[in-house]
Backbone:
């Protein structure tokens, strides 16, 4: 009868040989979904940018009112409606102005008649004085009467010009092309001088205002273009002016952003990127970065293989991203990462 021990021993040896022949694997996920292209990271000189926060306001805004006192007879626009410069928006009952116009016209007729009579008297006494038929006192009195008549006529005509200016407020017209953002009254409402009737704004251009230090403001001039963001979308802004701010040791920078396509709404959050010199930085290609939720990592090639390295990222520049921490110049980074996440 043969012993079964040798058979068991042989199976164990086969198993041990199989285990001992298996090659060691690299770190978990080192080769999964990766190409082996690498990049040696180097220092790069980048501009240091200050992100000055502000609000994008409409370039033009106007609250329309009247100098008349009377009932609103018509409001021809609604909120959100786009209007053209000079377009009639609302009207005020002009009957009080019309009544005053009749009085002013009558006053002008009377002033003209007095002026004509004073002119005839002055001309007559000038002739008499030349013929020594009138005294100097009589001539002076006639000339004074003419001067008073001329002053009265000018006053009457000025009253008419003033009334014509006031009567223009019976029609509320758009001072510029824009959009009606608020309608304060309806037909039948009573309007008094200075009472808001409509609000109009032009959002085809936006003005971004931010506050910066005098040292940073010293490098800015009107006409300089700055990179900017409105609601995290990149735009170009043209510096309009740099002036002292109303409070504190700060300067206010006004920059204009074109918005003809109305892609940005007035009141949106805005950021101007203002240069504050340069700094040394480390850049890696964007496709070398692995995202896991809010975290970011890169694959670093070392002597013992690849390792996953969590990093803190900064701004993006032409397809590359700045690494603020977690990576140093001289290290090699895998640039052909094709995996969909962190292993």
Residues:
């Amino acid at each position: 009868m043969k012993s079964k021990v040798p058979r068991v021993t042989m199976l164990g040896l086969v198993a041990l040989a199989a285990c001992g022949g298996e090659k060691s694997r690299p770190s978990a996920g080192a080769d999964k979904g990766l190409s082996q292209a690498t990049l040696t990271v180097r220092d790069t000189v980048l501009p240091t940018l200050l992100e000055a926060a502000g609000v994008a306001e409409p370039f033009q805004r106007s609250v329309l009112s009247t100098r008349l006192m009377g009932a609103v007879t018509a409001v021809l626009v609604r909120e959100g409606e786009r209007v053209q410069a000079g377009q009639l928006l609302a009207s005020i009952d002009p009957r009080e102005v019309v009544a005053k116009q009749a009085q002013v016209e009558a006053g002008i007729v009377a002033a003209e008649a007095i002026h004509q009579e004073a002119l005839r008297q002055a001309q007559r006494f000038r002739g008499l004085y030349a013929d020594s038929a009138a005294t100097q006192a009589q001539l002076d009195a006639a000339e004074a009467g003419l001067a008073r008549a001329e002053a009265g006529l000018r006053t009457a005509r000025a009253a008419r010009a003033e009334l014509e200016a006031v009567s223009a407020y019976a029609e509320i017209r758009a001072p510029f092309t824009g959009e009606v953002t608020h309608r304060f009254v309806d037909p039948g409402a009573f309007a008094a001088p200075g009472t808001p009737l409509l609000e109009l704004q032009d959002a085809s251009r936006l003005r971004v205002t931010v506050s910066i230090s005098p040292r940073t403001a010293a490098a800015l001039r009107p006409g300089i273009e700055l990179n900017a963001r409105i609601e995290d979308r990149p735009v170009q802004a043209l510096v309009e002016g740099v002036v002292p701010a109303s409070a504190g040791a700060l300067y206010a920078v006004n920059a204009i952003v074109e918005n003809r396509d109305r892609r940005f709404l007035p009141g949106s959050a805005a950021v101007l990127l203002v240069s504050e010199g340069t700094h040394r930085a480390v850049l890696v290609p964007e496709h070398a970065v692995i995202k896991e939720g809010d975290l970011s990592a890169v694959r670093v090639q070392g002597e013992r293989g690849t390792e996953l390295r969590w990093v803190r990222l900064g701004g993006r520049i032409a397809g590359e991203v700045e690494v603020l921490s977690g990576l140093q110049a001289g290290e090699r980074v895998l640039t052909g990462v094709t995996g969909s996440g962190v292993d």
Q: What stands out?
A: The chain has three domains: 38-47+280-334, 51-60+201-277, 66-179.
